[in-house]
UniProtKB/TrEMBL annotation:
<keyword id="KW-0732">Signal</keyword>
<protein>
    <submittedName>
        <fullName>Tetratricopeptide repeat protein</fullName>
    </submittedName>
</protein>
<feature type="signal peptide">
    <location>
        <begin position="1"/>
        <end position="27"/>
    </location>
</feature>
<dbReference type="InterPro" id="IPR019734">
    <property type="entry name" value="TPR_rpt"/>
</dbReference>
<keyword id="KW-0802">TPR repeat</keyword>
<feature type="repeat" description="TPR">
    <location>
        <begin position="104"/>
        <end position="137"/>
    </location>
</feature>
<dbReference type="Pfam" id="PF13432">
    <property type="entry name" value="TPR_16"/>
</dbReference>
<dbReference type="InterPro" id="IPR011990">
    <property type="entry name" value="TPR-like_helical_dom_sf"/>
</dbReference>
Amino acid sequence: MKAAFMLHNIVVAAFLLIFGSYAAAMAGEAEDKAALDRLFAELQQADAQQAGRIEDDIWRIWSRSGSPAMDLLLERGRKAMEQGDIEAATDHLTALTDHAPEFAEGWNARATVFFHAGRYGQSVADIQRTLVLNPRHFGALAGFGAILEQLERKPQALEVYRAALAIHPQMQGVLDAVKRLEAEIAGQEL
């Protein structure tokens, strides 16, 4: 009887641990969604300095997968990219996208690596996946605009950059690109 009681306690404890972890993860996701909604609303009204702080907060939330192991793969992939080790970055981020296919930032980070490697087709595929998972990902849109610009598809690049600015109106690099492309396109039309 004592063994059955101990087994019952272990099963109940395991259930509570699993359910508690699941409930905590779900609560964390709800908190992140609410925080992101608030941050994106603030971003629409922010000046350039405020936008920088808000953007950092958004990236911090986007960089949390909910798994310490997946977060470590993202960190290692980004670090390898910063160090110019494209092969290691690709390996880490491919492992991340394989093991956490619903984590948009894994796809976005790998898209960035592919962009820096000049592998635009693979980058666009990962950008597409990022945007399916996170339609407000202004970084992915900016990256797509940059690829279109590199491919001399300037009207399309301008359209994508404008879509990024609709989400994040203070992206200085994108604002500069829009001005430049508007001037170039206007000059071509004359």
